[in-house]
UniProtKB/TrEMBL annotation:
<dbReference type="GO" id="GO:0097506">
    <property type="term" value="F:deaminated base DNA N-glycosylase activity"/>
</dbReference>
<keyword id="KW-0004">4Fe-4S</keyword>
<dbReference type="InterPro" id="IPR036895">
    <property type="entry name" value="Uracil-DNA_glycosylase-like_sf"/>
</dbReference>
<feature type="domain" description="Uracil-DNA glycosylase-like">
    <location>
        <begin position="15"/>
        <end position="134"/>
    </location>
</feature>
<keyword id="KW-0408">Iron</keyword>
<protein>
    <submittedName>
        <fullName>Uracil-DNA glycosylase family 4</fullName>
    </submittedName>
</protein>
<dbReference type="GO" id="GO:0006281">
    <property type="term" value="P:DNA repair"/>
</dbReference>
<dbReference type="InterPro" id="IPR005122">
    <property type="entry name" value="Uracil-DNA_glycosylase-like"/>
</dbReference>
<dbReference type="GO" id="GO:0051539">
    <property type="term" value="F:4 iron, 4 sulfur cluster binding"/>
</dbReference>
<dbReference type="InterPro" id="IPR051536">
    <property type="entry name" value="UDG_Type-4/5"/>
</dbReference>
<keyword id="KW-0479">Metal-binding</keyword>
<dbReference type="Pfam" id="PF03167">
    <property type="entry name" value="UDG"/>
</dbReference>
<keyword id="KW-0411">Iron-sulfur</keyword>
<keyword id="KW-0234">DNA repair</keyword>
<keyword id="KW-0378">Hydrolase</keyword>
<keyword id="KW-0227">DNA damage</keyword>
<dbReference type="GO" id="GO:0046872">
    <property type="term" value="F:metal ion binding"/>
</dbReference>
Length: 146
């Protein structure tokens, strides 16, 4: 799709490079049962918020993978002075919200998390994920690499 130089990554150091994209995690470790607790979220929040603060001035679109990431991002944007929709934005695959933050605005998009639970059951298909990323690229003004 043009966001990376290769279609998969097998291990650290395999040459994967993102283009016009960055990944940041709400929780930086794999929690038990892959279900982060509020305590883990709160422990990682200062690092998440700082990284978001650093990239926000040049960021046009943020794709949140899963409801957990969506909720953490909205809280962080609000903490940075963002005007989050009221009532609170509802998570869903393909939802979009424009959030003004200071002198800029960012489009927040929801996507089901690409976990095995979602991909093996068909809740999230490759086509669905491709459509979300294509939409994000369009909103960000990024051309697909050939």
């Amino acid at each position: 799709m043009g966001l990376a130089n290769q279609p998969t990554s097998e291990h650290a150091g395999d040459g994967l490079e993102l283009r016009h994209a960055r990944m940041i995690a709400a929780v930086r470790c794999a929690p038990p049962a892959n279900k982060p607790t509020p305590e883990e979220r709160d422990t990682c929040n200062p690092w998440f918020r700082r990284e978001l603060e650093l990239v926000l001035p040049s960021t046009r679109v943020i794709v949140c993978l899963g409801k957990f990431g969506f909720d953490v991002l909205l809280g962080a944007l609000e903490g940075l002075g963002g005007v989050v929709p009221k009532p609170r934005a509802k998570f869903g695959h393909g939802v979009e919200y424009v959030v003004p933050v200071g002198d800029t605005e960012v489009t927040v998009m929801g996507s089901f998390h690409p976990s095995q639970q979602n991909t093996f059951t068909g809740k999230l298909t490759e086509r669905m994920q491709d459509e979300i990323l294509a939409r994000a690229m369009t909103l960000a003004g990024v051309q697909a690499a050939h």
